[in-house]
Amino acid sequence: MLTRSATSHLLAPTLMPPPLRLAKSESCRIFSIKGRKWAQQTKISSSSSENQTVTVVSSPKSKDEDDYSASEVVKSFYQGINDHDLSFVEKLIAENCVYEDLIYPRPFVGRKAILEFFKKFNDSISKDLQFVIDDISAEDSLAVGVTWHLEWKGKPFPFSKGCSFYRLEVINNKRQIIYGRDSVEPAIKPGDAALVIIQGVAWLLQRFPQLANML
């Protein structure tokens, strides 16, 4: 049995930092430490994968602020897609932006074509399907790398892991996305067979160099 002094010692305050309290709301999640709160505009969630990890990245500024960093622009871009708010997304994309989604044969060129693509995307799904950022780079002022996945009502969506790269330019004193590329997890995974295919193509190019003109 613990004595009174031992019990008091165990219950005494320590120098450990206070726990991170997480409260949910419908539009965003509110984080609080020592009473200080801020909105996490990019959806960050506790993943239901085996390792049960929680990824937290710094929150973007509110939609009314102009001086976005590169990573904040990209996080706000994903938030706009999740909200189906293309009028907001439009402000983050440069007029002559080029967007490559590698499941399509050709890139989307220009803001209008890109917005039409995302309108078609949003029209085909509900807001229950959300982009969730796993990790994002924040060191570069004009280039951002992102890893992400999709979730359906908080649960990981199959074959939805992806990584993206964005390059930005400062246009009229605001950072805008000038180039983007998405690479998405394939539904069919060939494994070692992909190495055999690459080896076979390389052998053909070595034997018949003129075939390189067809690439």
Short recap of the structure:
The protein has helices spanning 4-11, 70-82, 86-92, 111-124, 192-207, and strands spanning 21-24, 29-33, 36-40, 93-101, 108-109, 129-136, 143-152, 155-156, 162-171, 174-184.
Q: How would you characterize this protein structure?
A:
The strands form 2 sheets. Strands 4, 5, 6, 7, 8, 9 and 10 form a 7-stranded mixed sheet that branches. A 3-stranded antiparallel sheet has the order 1-2-3, with no helix packed on it. The relative contact order is 0.12. The protein has a domain at 70-192: Roll (Nuclear Transport Factor 2, Chain: A). A hairpin with a 4-residue loop joins strand 1 and strand 2 (29-33). The model is unreliable at 1-65 (pLDDT under 50). Helix content is 27%, strand content 31%. By secondary structure, the protein is an alpha+beta fold. It has 5 helices and 10 strands. It holds the Pfam family SnoaL_2.
| CATH fold node name of the domain at 70-192 | Nuclear Transport Factor 2, Chain: A
Under the CATH scheme, the architecture of the domain at 70-192 is: Roll
Helix and strand composition category: alpha+beta
> Radius of gyration over alpha carbons?
23 Å
Low-pLDDT segments: 1-65
Distance between the termini: 78 Å
Helix content: 25-40%
Largest sheet: 7 strands, mixed
Shape: globular
Strand content: 25-35%
Order of helices and strands: HEEEHHEEHEEEEEH
Q: Treating each run of at least 4 consecutive H or I residues as one helix, how many helices? A: 5
Mean pLDDT: 78
CATH class of the domain at 70-192: Alpha Beta
What's the total count of β strands? Answer: 10
